[in-house]
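User: My collaborator sent over this chain with a note saying "see what the structure looks like." That's all I know about it. Can you take a look?
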Amino acid sequence: MNVDLHGHNLATAYSLLDERLDRAISQGIRMVLLITGKPPQGEPPIARGRIRAAVGDWLAASRHAGDIAAVRGAHPRHGGAGALYIVLRRKK
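Assistant: Without extra context I'll predict from the sequence alone. Here is the result:
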């Protein structure tokens, strides 16, 4: 399952992520590709996007935190620095 947060503000991005995680967990999906967008390029300091910067806190405080096994950077073919894999725990 892919979740693309391009074009969203912080509130709508969080809402979409929460909804899609709920759906993935209920369907027994094990991996979600979260597309946040690549960080801006430029002179140091290079700032991360606001959504990308908030994702870690969102996931840690989420009602789904107990269902998340890991969060990993995506392979370049899946978006590299602009995406994350959210690995979900198996249902018992």
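A starting point for your reply to your collaborator: The mean pLDDT is 88.
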